[in-house]
Specification:
20% strand, 6-stranded antiparallel β-sheet, Hepatocyte Growth Factor, 211 residues, two-stranded antiparallel sheet, 8 strands
């Protein structure tokens, strides 16, 4: 498979995704994908491209509080992050660790952006039978089987004693077994305003201001 054929397949896939998801820019810092709202809270080197974002978008990203997009070799990569206050998630999955992510996984000086998800959709949890109920049922069955087993063994021993008196026959019991420079931290809060910064002294840094 040559390069031209790969590019053709990629373009066909992008076209299908454009038909599946519709992007709309409502103002300078707000966009929508299939009417799902996002706010551009930070943009570095004009990193946000609505058409490319729509091409790469997946509904699974709707469960995250923030979406970070970075560019490498003319390809856009998207990754979701939770709020810092989110429980039961690793720190590397929170927005406070975004600078570590950019430093470790992204090309130095690359263009990137951060979107705030304005309507987080948490995935539904599937219900399972209670463990106590399953164990209780198994326990009752086990108790019944044990009672039957003891009754059968008692009856068997009684018969064996009777036979031993009449025929003096001996029986054996049956066997039984069972880095680089640490980047600045993002202070994420609600209602942020996007601010574009320029690269200074080879460091990447951004701030999110409180409105």
């Amino acid at each position: 498979m040559n390069r031209d054929h790969i590019d053709e397949l990629a373009e066909q896939q992008a076209e299908r995704r454009r038909n599946l998801y519709q992007g709309l820019r409502t103002d300078k810092t707000h966009v929508e994908v299939n009417k799902h709202p996002f706010e551009i809270v930070f943009e570095y080197h004009d990193g946000f491209d609505l058409d490319k974002f729509v091409e790469r978008f997946s509904p699974i990203l709707n469960k995250y509080d923030y979406i970070v997009g970075d560019w490498g070799f003319e390809q856009l990569r998207l990754k979701g992050f939770f709020r810092d206050e989110t429980k039961e998630v690793q720190r590397s999955q929170t927005i406070g660790a975004v600078q570590d992510y950019l430093y470790e996984y992204c090309n130095f000086g690359c263009a990137y952006f951060i979107l705030k998800n304005e309507r987080v959709i948490k995935p539904k949890r599937t219900s399972h039978p209670r463990k106590d109920d399953r164990h209780g049922k198994r326990g009752n069955g086990s108790t019944t089987n044990q009672s039957r087993g003891r009754s059968n063994r008692s009856s068997s021993k009684s018969k064996q004693r009777h036979k031993s008196k009449s025929f003096t026959t001996k029986q054996k019991a049956a066997p039984f077994s069972e880095k680089r420079q640490t980047p600045a931290k993002v202070n994420a809060g609600s209602g942020r305003q996007a601010q574009t910064t320029k690269q200074t002294s080879g460091k990447r840094h951004f701030t999110i201001r409180q409105k």
